[in-house]
């Protein structure tokens, strides 16, 4: 907004003008008209009613949709204002699912009676909560799927944190910025992987070379890769201290995130076929020895 107003004016803003720059989130057409009619703001020619920039800002307003409280601009404003002026964001970890890796295992999942279900499913999790029980002395592999949730400050609804951030990132990058700058959103998409911690002499060239995978997706892959590496070590490298074990560990550490997930998926795909499991295990061990030179 600030840069666009300066670009339309063709000059730098004064300190008095700068404080008038704000991105509104109007829930009704009346609120939008009131924002446009602000006398001090209307002294800035680009923000007057009927101007090109004002029309673009108006197109992004929540009142154009029925679910105004869930509009990305409304969410962005509420999250930002709450975090800046009132309190930190409310975060909770819930248990999304607990299940045995082998469905035939005698594992019983448990939901503590003193934990109330959160909106959207699952329960909040705390240290010491029992999530599953099994017969004494049996080693049973099982998976726990936690979900880190964020509470929307204006509605109280709990939503998965990564989903909320992904929604806002996608809307700002693919809708808000293109509409503000060009008046359209059917333009080449801004890439999400741009390092903004440093400056660039040629921003356009940097954008052309930037990566295309959003942060939420990159984070998901990192989590999957971490779990995949642990799983590969558990299966392929029993803690014997042998040279073969060290070779497998060195190989697993050298795998890229995508490679680690791929190798773990090979085992998962044949988990119900003992003969196929042996074939995949031998192939992975052979690969580990070849790569590590063992």
Describe the structure.
The relative contact order is 0.07. The chain has three domains: 2-83 and 173-190, no CATH class; 91-152, no CATH class; 215-292, no CATH class. The protein has a four-stranded antiparallel β-sheet with strand order 3-1-5-6. It has a two-stranded antiparallel sheet with strand order 2-4. Strand 5 and strand 6 (158-160) form a beta hairpin. It has helices at 2-9, 15-18, 29-36, 52-59, 72-85, 161-182, 203-209, 215-236, 243-254, 257-269, 274-292, and strands spanning 91-100, 108-109, 123-124, 132-133, 142-151, 158-160. It is built from eleven helices and six strands. It is α+β, with helices and mostly antiparallel strands and 294 residues long. It is 47% helix and 10% strand.
How would the blueprint of this fold be written?
Elements: H1 2-9, H2 15-18, H3 29-36, H4 52-59, H5 72-85, E1 91-100, E2 108-109, E3 123-124, E4 132-133, E5 142-151, E6 158-160, H6 161-182, H7 203-209, H8 215-236, H9 243-254, H10 257-269, H11 274-292
Antiparallel strand pairs: 1-3, 1-5, 2-4, 5-6
Helix pairs in contact: 5-6, 8-9, 8-10, 9-11
Characteristic terms for this protein:
single chain; 294 residues; four-stranded antiparallel beta sheet; two-stranded antiparallel sheet; 11 helices; alpha+beta; 6 strands; 3 domains
